[in-house]
Specification:
CATH class: Alpha Beta
Strand content: 5-15%
CATH superfamily: Glycoside hydrolase, family 3, N-terminal domain
Low-confidence stretches: 17-39
Distance between the termini: 10 Å
Number of domains: 1
CATH architecture: Alpha-Beta Barrel
Amino acid sequence: MNKFSFLFVFLSILLQACGQHTNENHSDQHDPEQDEKALAPSSRYSLKDFLNSNEQLESDVERIFHQLDDTAIVAQLLMPAIGKYGQTEETIRSLVQKRQIGGLLLLNGTKQQFSNWTKEFDSTNLSLGQLPFLYSADAEPSLVNRKIIGSRTVKKANQLKSIQEVRDCADTISRDLTEIGINYNFAPVVDMSPNKTVGYRSFGAKTENIIPWSEAFIQQSQDQQIIATAKHFPGHGLVSGDTHKSLQVINGELKEIGNYPPLIQKGVLSIMIAHIAVKNNRQYDTKGMPASISHKIVTELLRNEMNFKGLIVTDAMNMGGVVNIPNCNIQAVQAGCDVILMPVNASKTHLEILNKYHQDPNFKTIVDQAAKRIIRMKLCLM
């Protein structure tokens, strides 16, 4: 969906939601023109606005948030996948109809099929009066041509030779994503190169390139209205194993953590948390648990110490590094993650989070803050 289509859907949904709200509470006083004046965003925003102080944007976020019921608020945090390695079309359609998700990862399929899905689910959300989705993809230079069949050919990250090639690559990928309707890219990988699972996917063949080349990729993507994501925090490049299979461990110093502050300062809008534990580290030890469910890593380190204001997304919650931990999705929310990516059972996860949302005021505050950040990002995609 392009910028103007996204705006049309957003405005239409807002007006429909306002009409429903007014009909339920003041059916004899419904005035559509007043609805539009009261609820429609007062300005058109871009991703450049997300990190800036903007009273009007903040006001629009609050108005939209207060139009959502609890089901829709919790839904904003959940992002299952559809595609070869995701959920079936029937499962996703059910989740959309039940208003239990706020985004969707398009995972291994064709460009045409992904385009069809974004159009279908946009139409369904519009008919239900729901907010548009964040549509994401693992569109890294090293993976995009395998993840999105039919996408324009680009070099792998470790084959790029200059910062200009990085910018051109980001521009090419972003054009494909825009044509599909994807607005959220889980790239770039900012890990160092030694780990064979992630190393070829980063710009770390030369350590000195990681920060400037990642920054160039991020800036070029976000200039094209595609949210960029630095991953895998706090660092996946110097561990030996694969978090898809099992929990991996950083033993001692967080040697890759320095890659993130420069990118945060330059405005990266999303950071992905890895399923990696930290041990033998007095300040950041996660006590055998993955960083993705660690309040110490997500909130204390990334959100507070590093002053990151964007979206924090988990790595896939069906991965071996986290999936067998009881209540892992609840714990990820409590840790401070905004987007819970690929929960094994999104409907069950929605119910679990919703129940705790109703029972625990502190948890409710965490969820509300995450939902507002997501709404703000959706507004900035207009």
